[in-house]
Amino acid sequence: MAGAALGVTALAVGASVWTAQADVTDGPAPQASASATPGSAVERVSETIVHASDAGPRGVNVTIDDGPDPRWTPQVLDLLREHGVKATFCVTGTQAEAHPDLVKDVVAAGHRLCNHSVSHDTAMDRKSEAYQSRQILDAERAITEASGGVRPLYYRAPGGAFTPYSRELAASRGMRPLGWNVDTKDFERPGADAIVATVERELPNGPTLLFHDAGGDRSQTVDALRRVLPWLKEQGHTFGFPVR
């Protein structure tokens, strides 16, 4: 369901399966700034797709896609709090509008927000620029309103369906295009053991890990995170945010 490494997947509109894929080499970027605050000015960022962590060479970025979800997001937040980990939540506009309290919980816990489009259309790269604009800007508005005024700092195209236009638009709105290096395939529900093994095997590919907290039963993701987070610490990794 996800594309091959270094590729981009595009699926039909409204696909019931939730996925993401994007790997584009990015150059050096400035350290991430503090989370956006209500009323803060929008400053343009780089349009290149970022993977690097602001936590340095041993840093990892935990990213959580597709939520928030009233059943799974609170469990993920509890685990992150238990292990002292900050993560980046890639939120869809529809879920933000449906669960603004959870978006506020994410922000209150010190995590960062990422725009994951309005409706998770993995075929966005085959749509008009006007359509792409609506998906990105309407989601930005919905997420910012749901959060109480905190803007998303990143943009992750659903299914990795980035285009030059969408990257440029997101960057102009202060949202750095965000890729990943480790696709845990947790959306396929392969079992917690398989999810953990994927992280252990693919972590040398780079620091940004992709998990999901919505789009179906995420009990395996929760179980895997319960094991992955302490394992990463044992391996000497620290947790950060994608550079901006």
Question: What does this protein look like?
Answer:
The chain has 244 residues and is of the alpha/beta class. It contains seven helices and eight strands, in the order βαβααβαβαββαβαβ. Strands 1, 2, 3, 4, 5, 6, 7 and 8 form an eight-stranded parallel sheet that branches. β6, α6 and β7 (208-212) form a beta-alpha-beta unit. α1 packs parallel to α7 (219-234), α3 (100-108) crosses α4 and α4 packs parallel to α5 (164-172). The longest helix has 19 residues, at 129-147. The protein is globular. It starts with 58 loop residues before the first strand and ends with a strand. Residues 1-39 have low confidence and may be disordered.
Task: Please provide a brief summary of the model.
The protein is of the alpha/beta class and 244 residues long.
Based on helices, strands and strand pairing, what is the structural class?
alpha/beta
Main sheet characteristics: 8 strands, parallel
Provide the β-strand percentage band.
5-15%
Mean pLDDT value: 87
Rg from Cα: 16 Å
Large-scale geometry: globular
Report the total helices.
7
* Unreliable runs: 1-39
Determine the N-to-C terminus distance.
29 Å
How many beta-strand elements? 8
Order of helices and strands: EHEHHEHEHEEHEHE
Helix content: 25-40%
Map the helices and strands.
Elements: E1 59-65, H1 73-82, E2 88-91, H2 93-98, H3 100-108, E3 112-115, H4 129-147, E4 154-155, H5 164-172, E5 176-177, E6 182-183, H6 192-202, E7 208-212, H7 219-234, E8 238-240
Parallel strand pairs: 1-2, 1-7, 1-8, 2-3, 3-4, 4-5, 6-7
